[in-house]
Design goal:
eight-stranded parallel beta sheet, Arginase, Chain A, single chain, about 40% helix, globular, about 300 residues
Length: about 300
């Protein structure tokens, strides 16, 4: 059974004027349930992440400012959300959900977090709607508990995974791969182990050919025993922030290829959903739901 981390807090942490970015987190599981892709038993609500696990990835002073709601207004503007206790709770539940998903992935080959992909959060900063880096937290959890020895993070969100790159810049057991828009946020990029920067307007065939060439080589070179996949749908041509020009069909082909590579190499994978900012919420939800459907078709 496909296991998916979801809690209602994912969708309701913000004042009304900031709600739109969060609507998809409520609508994705509702759509999957409506279409019969999953059952209620597929969904699990993560608990609260322990502080000592947070501190394996994020600096104590930064975490304390988050926890105590004492970040400066400048730091809050960098994040993009007004800081609140509910928002911090949301982030620690998301990170716990990604850790829980790793356990399910060991059993089932794959597991999802409806939210997550908070790849702009670094060791001591939040940025771009990201406070805690869920996949980085989970990767460190696996390493520190001897559950994995070599990890590959595949970040196919349209924005570079700058926080993830910075967190693991001196960690040889984690290979960070980011394929993103060259002229997109963040303006100051970090250095991933492999960065593939794409020009504005890249379309289906070129994008997929680049991925088809790069990913199998990476897996053969790195021989990871666990993969994290950040499956952002802000690569779509309809996305108001993306600057690329992929169709939904190409987005599905991207997901299929990633999952097929994981299956062929017998590597468990945890999937966090990342960004999506098309003007029509239906386009965002449909594209994200396609990722879940592809996993269901291939794994179950």
């Amino acid at each position: 059974m496909l296991k998916i981390a979801f809690d209602p807090i994912y969708a309701h942490p913000l004042p009304e004027g900031h709600r739109f970015p969060m609507l998809k987190y409520e609508l994705i599981p509702a759509q999957l349930l409506h279409e019969g892709v999953i059952t209620a038993d597929s969904l699990f609500s993560p608990g609260l992440l322990a502080e000592d696990i947070i501190l394996q990835t994020h600096e104590e002073s930064y975490w304390q400012q988050l926890r105590d709601l004492t970040l400066s207004l400048k730091e809050q503007r960098r994040i993009g959300f007004p800081l609140s206790a509910l928002l911090v709770e949301r982030e620690i539940r998301i990170a716990q959900g990604t850790i829980d998903g790793c356990r399910f992935a060991f059993d089932n080959g794959i597991a999802f977090n409806v939210a997550g992909g908070t790849h702009h959060a670094g060791t001591n900063w939040g940025e771009g709607f990201c406070l805690l880096n869920d996949q980085a937290v989970a990767a460190n959890y696996l390493l520190n508990n001897n559950l994995a020895q070599s990890i590959l993070i595949i970040d196919l969100d349209v924005h570079q995974g700058n926080g993830t790159a910075q967190i693991f810049e001196n960690e040889p057991r984690v290979f960070t791969f980011s394929m993103h828009g060259a002229n997109n946020f963040p303006s100051r990029k970090e250095t991933s182990d492999l960065d593939i920067s794409l020009a504005d307007g890249v379309e289906d065939e070129q994008y997929l050919n680049i991925l088809y060439e790069a990913l199998p080589k990476l897996i053969q070179q790195q021989k990871p025993d666990f993969i994290f996949y950040l499956a952002g749908v802000d690569v779509l041509s309809s996305d108001k922030l993306g600057k690329l020009a992929l169709s939904k069909k190409a987005c599905k082909a991207r997901d299929r290829f990633v999952f097929e590579q994981c299956i062929a190499n017998n590597i468990p994978v945890q999937v966090s959903m990342g960004g999506g900012y098309s003007p029509l919420i239906k386009d965002i939800v449909d594209a994200h739901c396609n990722t879940f459907k592809m996993a269901t078709d291939l794994y179950f």
